Model the fold of this input.
Amino acid sequence: MAERFADGFVAVDWGTTNRRTWLVDAAGVAGAEASDDRGILACADFPAAVAQLRDRAGGRPVLMAGMIGSNRGWREVPYVAAPATLAMIAAAVTWVEPGFGIVPGVSFVDGTLADVMRGEEVQLLGAAALAAADADGLVCHPGTHTKWVEMEGGAIARFRTVMTGDVFAALAHKSILSDLLAHDAPVDDSFLAGVDHALANNDLTAELFAARARVVLGRAEAVHAASYVSGLLIGSDVRTGLGRLRADVVPVLGTPVLTARFAAALTRAGRTAVEHDGDAAFIAGMVAIAGAL
Amino acid sequence: MAERFADGFVAVDWGTTNRRTWLVDAAGVAGAEASDDRGILACADFPAAVAQLRDRAGGRPVLMAGMIGSNRGWREVPYVAAPATLAMIAAAVTWVEPGFGIVPGVSFVDGTLADVMRGEEVQLLGAAALAAADADGLVCHPGTHTKWVEMEGGAIARFRTVMTGDVFAALAHKSILSDLLAHDAPVDDSFLAGVDHALANNDLTAELFAARARVVLGRAEAVHAASYVSGLLIGSDVRTGLGRLRADVVPVLGTPVLTARFAAALTRAGRTAVEHDGDAAFIAGMVAIAGAL
Done:
């Protein structure tokens, strides 16, 4: 790492609803995670929130990634256009004030395709640094907005977002499915049936209703509908994410509860999924970026 | 009509959020619509709400259809299994008390397919009575839950529900798209682009996010995103509804603002859409049911 990182630094994953911070030492080893609910939407006063970080940092640099760099964050940081390398992303870190840098997101445009990410780029670079993802290949990052990323030569070359978690939450919040989606949605036979249906069909908004109709008609139990709907959405996600790519082994990067769901769906699609902890990848990515500054 | 309908009757479309009533004379001609917000979810006291109807009816029979016959309504009325004829539906009208009949919904099961309707069956029978729909053919009934119905010999033979309006409303209410979906969504070039995309692809939950990414990247205007998303969902609906059926001419039954959107999408799919007013079909359907009692 550069001289100013000689005493380590603070890595911040500053998202929409939460903020998570780690103190990373000069060897790149992270201490315990500290998290709070000062996500950007709950944060009216960025200077005050940053002052709090400054106290924690004790003079060390602070590297932030995620929605903190969006137009609703502390400072809007322009996207780096894909294909985006570690060096390009590090060079575009924006120092809002001395010692406080925001990592840029990545954009992708190809014909009518257009996509953006903010935060996931750090985990992707971290996965590459940890050799958890090949320099060339497909990586899945499941979440509220799942990212399917094609890496080329260690760069983020192309990607597509699928808003699976967001759609599930919206339906659970307010739709004819709300009652059913209040149940737990374990990875079980109903989940796999939903995955299988979505992998083989193109009728998502109809099959969502069928999940309820089967319960109404006594052909399925209400407690299984949430798993089926989760399977439908994740199966659709996987089908779209894999596209026409020949990817036999797919690293899945994120929180264990989500990577397990997507690994199950990828297995159903005949692929080998390899799960990786997203936090470890985030730290590794921040260390890689700090090292490239 | 039977003797007890000699002075006409009151037709009630009693749904989840609204209740609409018409006084229909002995010749089957309806007076002005009266509507209120006493939908079943707002109605804690059905006897009181029914007493109000009784005053309006002045001794005439009251025929009710819609969610009033669901497990959240006044009395749960079992579904008639498709294929369902006018005679079968009329025979299954449930008289909750003298003079107050609830028209049953229709269910459809075929292998793993399962579906239900409550209320639309009246419009479908009415369209057949009006010769607005052929005795054999596909009918589209767009809405919160669009129904695509295959009529055979005047009976409701098979159908599939697509929860288009419900998904749009859920995304508008609470998702990353909420801000964009607060705009009007006219039937314009953006709408048609969404329809075209959905007719040709199988990536709905990804393309929904792309609608936002294009705005973020300055490749589309925020005011056009709602039309594009509406087009994506309605295009998916039409693609699913048409399925593998050879239907060159498709009657579209419902409220004019909705039938226009679906007619535009069907035209894009190379079909001839013929729009019909859903209220007229509802009255005709209730008259047909009354006549069969």
Observations:
- Chain A has two domains: 3-133+280-292, 162-276.
- The first helix of chain A runs from residue 46 to 57.
- The first strand of chain A starts at residue 9 and ends at 14.
